[in-house]
Specification:
Layout lengths: L13 E3 L13 E3 L3 E3 L19 E2 L7 H7 L3 H8 L6 H21 L10 H26 L13 H12 L3 H15 L9 E2 L5 E2 L1 E2 L8 E2 H14 L4 H27 L1
Parallel strand pairs: 1-2
Antiparallel strand pairs: 2-3, 3-4, 5-6, 7-8
Helix pairs in contact: 3-4, 3-8, 4-5, 4-6, 4-8, 5-8, 6-7
C-alpha cells in the first residue's frame, strides 16, 4: 500500500509502518500496516485498555469490506470503546465466558456420575461435547488472534496467555483419536446430516475420501477415522456415556484453570 493513502477515519495522509515516513521526522501522522490503522485524531484516554491506539486497534477496511466494517473505521473513540467493553456492547465476550462456564458445569456433573447411563444426565452428555469442541476450536482460535501481536517484532499480548495455556492443557489430555471422537460427537449432536463423514465426489469424478478439518489440525481418511473411533469405543465396551464421564474427569482440573483465566479477560 502506498504512503499517500488517506486515513480511513480523518482523511489525512496515512503512512505505512513498513514504508517511508513524512519529510518532517517530528510530525505526528496517521499510520497503518496490512490490517490495522492508527489515527492521530484518537481521543482515547492514556492507559485506556480499550483504546483504538492500544491492543484493540481499528481494522483497516479492505476493498471488499462490509458496510459495517467501513462505518466502524469512522466511528468516534467513545462509541468504538463501548463496542469493545464487556457488559456494554460486546455480547461475544459474554457468550465466550458462558461457553467456558457451561463446559465446566457439564464436566462437573458428568464427573460425579458412575458412568453407567444416568437418565438425568443425557442432555448434559450432549452439551459437554458441543461446548468442549467449541473451547478447543472456536475459543482457541479467537484467543490466538488476540494474543498474536499486531506489529511485526512487537511482544505478544500476554493478558491472553494464561487462557491459551489452559486450552493447550485441555487439548494435551487427549490423543489424536480421542480428539477425533470429540469432534464426531459434537458434529452428530449439532447436525442432522453429517456430510463430512460421508464419501463425496469432486467435479472431476474423483472421490473425496477424507475429513478435511479436524481438531488435530490434519485431514484424515474416512477409513482411518472409522478404525480410530471403533478402537476407542471398544476400550469402553461401547458405552458412550462412560466415555463422556471419563473425558470429563480427565479434563476437569484444566477447565477450572481456564475458567479462572477467562474471568480475567471476559468478565
Amino acid at each position: 500500500m502506498s504512503t499517500t493513502d488517506e486515513c480511513p477515519r480523518c482523511g489525512a495522509p496515512c503512512y505505512d509502518l513498513n514504508g517511508p515516513g513524512p519529510e518532517d521526522k517530528n510530525a505526528t501522522v496517521c499510520t497503518k500496516d496490512d490490517s490495522h490503522f492508527w489515527c492521530i485524531t484518537c481521543t482515547c484516554p492514556p492507559e485506556d485498555p480499550y483504546s483504538c491506539n492500544g491492543v484493540f486497534p481499528r481494522v483497516l477496511p479492505t476493498p471488499d469490506a462490509t458496510k459495517r466494517q467501513r462505518y466502524s473505521a469512522k466511528m468516534s473513540c467513545d462509541d468504538h470503546r463501548k463496542l469493545l467493553q464487556p457488559g456494554r456492547g460486546d455480547v461475544h465476550s459474554k457468550l465466550r465466558l458462558q461457553w467456558i462456564s457451561q463446559t465446566l458445569r457439564a464436566a462437573r456433573q458428568l464427573s460425579s456420575s458412575k458412568g453407567r447411563g444416568d437418565a438425568g444426565l443425557w442432555a448434559v452428555d450432549y452439551i459437554f461435547w458441543i461446548r468442549l469442541y467449541g473451547v478447543l476450536d472456536d475459543v482457541n482460535r479467537f484467543l490466538t488472534r488476540l494474543y498474536t501481536p499486531v506489529l511485526e517484532g512487537a511482544p505478544p499480548r500476554r493478558v491472553f496467555e494464561g487462557a491459551l495455556h489452559a486450552i493447550t492443557s485441555i487439548s494435551s489430555v487427549f490423543n489424536d483419536d480421542e480428539l477425533l471422537y470429540i469432534q464426531y460427537r459434537r458434529d452428530e449432536a449439532c447436525h442432522p446430516v453429517a456430510h463430512a463423514y460421508e464419501l463425496g465426489q469432486r467435479s472431476d469424478g474423483r472421490l473425496i475420501e477424507e475429513i478435511g478439518k479436524t481438531l488435530s489440525g490434519q485431514p484424515i481418511n474416512h477409513g482411518t477415522f472409522d478404525r480410530a473411533v471403533d478402537a476407542l469405543m471398544s476400550r469402553y465396551e461401547r458405552n458412550e456415556f462412560a466415555i463422556a464421564c471419563d473425558f470429563a474427569r480427565r479434563v476437569l482440573p484444566h477447565l477450572d484453570t481456564l475458567m479462572r483465566e477467562a474471568l480475567k479477560i471476559f468478565a
